[in-house]
Design goal:
The structure is a single chain. With 373 residues, the chain is α/β, with parallel strands linked by helices. Helices cover 65% and strands 6% of the residues. It contains 15 helices and 4 strands. A 4-stranded mixed β-sheet has the order 2-1-3-4, sandwiched between helices. Helix 2 links the parallel strand 1 and strand 2.
């Protein structure tokens, strides 16, 4: 472990840099003051009031008021703003004459989060303006505020977002993303630490030190890494749950157990990959593909239930999916422990893999029957 600087950089340094990068860049949890624009073709007191109300909202900031649609569209295309609101000619007069004027929103959905939040804020503001106008009309007709509100909003809506009521992206994403980065590091360094023995033709010496026992050879090589990775994972959990105050609705012990199993399973998958393809270059390529696919197939970037059935079943082959389910149940939902036992059992099943490839990998280590370059 101390013979190459690569081991230290690939384990400790990369994880520390990634953790602090993601936690600092998403420190607010929800993006705020995202730049948008307004095309004010009405230039009335009412349109200026709409702009002021829009600019007072927490998540968006009116960066510029444009004179034409073309100017605003150009700013969207260059990425200077996430979207803009178009207030048409005669907006104020049409409102007063009950002609139902139309407000148009334009958002750049190439930036999904920014555009979605900007759209939501513009829609909310326009609904408030519409409701305020109707309230003013009904109050002018002599209705009380209580009766007027029942007419304007006959159905009152109460929204209760369980598990993550503040819609904090940091809590949802980083609780799985940072362990996912750790898992990718574990996978790649496991493949490298075994594959380098084959590439440098030191594998026979490695097997001789274990007295010919492949189990002792693997355990002896992997155990120090397992301890290091688990300490790094627990450090990340302390950083997230203790320092950054991520919620834990369930059991911290269950999350820690899930993390330990996740680390061990990613090592097992590294052994499977280098055993199936005992050439360092090939195994690293396969491992990188498998590790990166885990982020997509886990379900925290795109919901698993929305995937096509074959891919939904394929997601079970990625350990990050199971750790994600443990984190959601224990960290966010605080659900029954049986929901945690199922992914734990699924991860334990991954340990069958190293036994399947053990004979092939041992034969490759002793006889070096592969192309070393």
């Amino acid at each position: 472990m101390f013979s190459r600087p690569l081991y230290l950089i690939a384990t400790v340094v990369v994880l520390v840099v990634c953790s602090f990068f993601f936690l600092s860049i998403m420190q607010q949890g929800v993006p705020e003051r995202m730049p948008i624009g307004v095309v004010d073709l009405d230039k009335s007191t009412t349109s200026r009031n709409v702009i002021r109300q829009l600019n007072s909202m927490q998540l968006v900031e009116v960066k510029m008021v444009y004179n034409s649609y073309a100017d605003a569209r150009q700013q969207v295309q260059t990425g200077d703003i996430y979207g803009f609101l178009l207030i048409p000619h005669g907006f104020s007069d049409d409102m007063l004459s009950f002609k139902r004027p139309t407000l148009s929103f334009y958002t750049n959905n190439a930036y999904t989060v920014g555009a979605g939040m900007a759209y939501k804020q513009m829609l909310t503001m326009c609904n408030l303006v519409s409701a305020g106008f109707h309230l003013a009309i009904l109050s002018a007709k002599g209705m009380t505020n209580d009766i007027a509100m029942k007419i304007v909003q006959p159905i009152a809506i109460e929204s209760h977002q369980i598990a993550n009521p503040t819609s904090n992206y940091s809590i949802y994403l980083l609780g799985t993303m940072i362990p996912g980065v750790l898992g990718l590091i574990v996978l790649m360094t496991t493949i490298f630490s075994i594959g380098i023995e084959l590439k440098d033709r030191t594998a026979p010496e490695w097997m001789e030190m274990s007295e010919g026992s492949f189990a002792i050879a693997i355990i002896g090589k992997m155990l120090p890494y397992t301890i290091l990775y688990f300490i790094l994972g627990l450090s990340c959990n302390v950083l997230m749950f203790q320092i950054m105050h991520f919620p834990i609705a369930g059991s911290y012990i269950n999350i820690s157990i899930g993390l330990f199993l996740f680390v061990a399973v990613m090592q097992a998958m590294g052994i499977v990959i280098i055993g199936a393809a005992p050439v360092l270059r090939t195994a690293l390529s396969v491992g990188a593909l498998y590790g990166m696919l885990g982020f997509s197939m886990s379900g925290f970037t795109f919901p698993s239930m929305a995937m096509l059935p074959p891919f939904r079943s394929l997601a079970w082959l990625f350990p990050l999916r199971h750790y994600y389910m443990i984190y959601v149940n224990e960290g966010l939902l605080g659900g029954p422990e049986v929901n945690t036992f199922i992914p734990i059992a699924a991860m334990i099943a991954f340990f069958i893999g190293p036994f399947i490839v053990s004979r092939r990998l041992k034969y490759a280590a002793i006889n070096l029957n592969y192309a070393p370059k």
